[in-house]
Design a protein that fits this description.
Layout lengths: L3 H22 L5 H11 L1 H4 L3 H15 L6 H14 L8 H7 L5 H18 L5 H14 L6 H11 L17
Helix pairs in contact: 1-2, 1-5, 2-5, 4-7, 4-9
């Protein structure tokens, strides 16, 4: 079964394939302008709902130790190489991202999830979505390793945003 990111990647590929001929037709060759249009027209398709499904994908990708995170990440890499006039095959993904001061899509998804976390914290306790979030946290504290909170915190730890395992169930800080 395809992941949410992979399903959205196919839709994003369609958006990118519609964008590239228009960029050529209108003679838009400036790298910054092309990337901005990608960010406005393609990236939202690739990232739709990422604050929900992103942490699961991100934590799995980070435990894989790099490589292609998903089809959406490959699509982003392909676009950057195409825009720079390079063949995407054989080009190190991290080098391309650093060279063009870009962030990998999974890292953007981590930012979306962190933003979602902060929004949930600010909601009134009577809101159903906040109650569901608190129930998910409770699941994680009871040892669930397949809940959103576990994957989100695990990804943040692997990204070294949080520097300890104090959040893990059974640790002295949690109990």
């Amino acid at each position: 079964m395809a992941s949410s990111a992979d399903i959205l990647a196919e839709k994003g590929r369609n958006a990118m394939q519609a964008l590239l001929p228009r960029l050529r037709r209108h003679l838009i060759s400036q790298f910054d302008m092309r990337c901005r249009l990608f960010d406005i027209l393609v990236e939202p398709v690739l990232s739709y709902g990422a604050q929900i499904w992103g942490p699961v994908m991100l934590s799995k990708w980070l435990f894989k130790r790099g490589g292609t995170a998903c089809l959406a990440d490959s699509l982003h890499h392909q676009f950057l190489c195409n825009t720079a006039g390079m063949a995407p095959n054989g080009k190190d993904r991290d080098m391309v991202l650093r060279e063009f001061h870009r962030m990998s899509l999974p890292y953007r998804w981590a930012l979306l999830a962190a933003s979602w976390w902060e929004k949930l914290k600010a909601l009134p306790a009577t809101r159903l979505v906040r109650q569901a979030w608190l129930a998910d946290i409770d699941l994680m504290l009871r040892g669930c390793q397949d809940c959103w909170t576990f994957h989100f915190l695990s990804a943040l730890q692997r990204l070294e945003v949080i520097d300890s395992e104090a959040w893990r169930p059974g640790s002295a800080a949690v109990t």
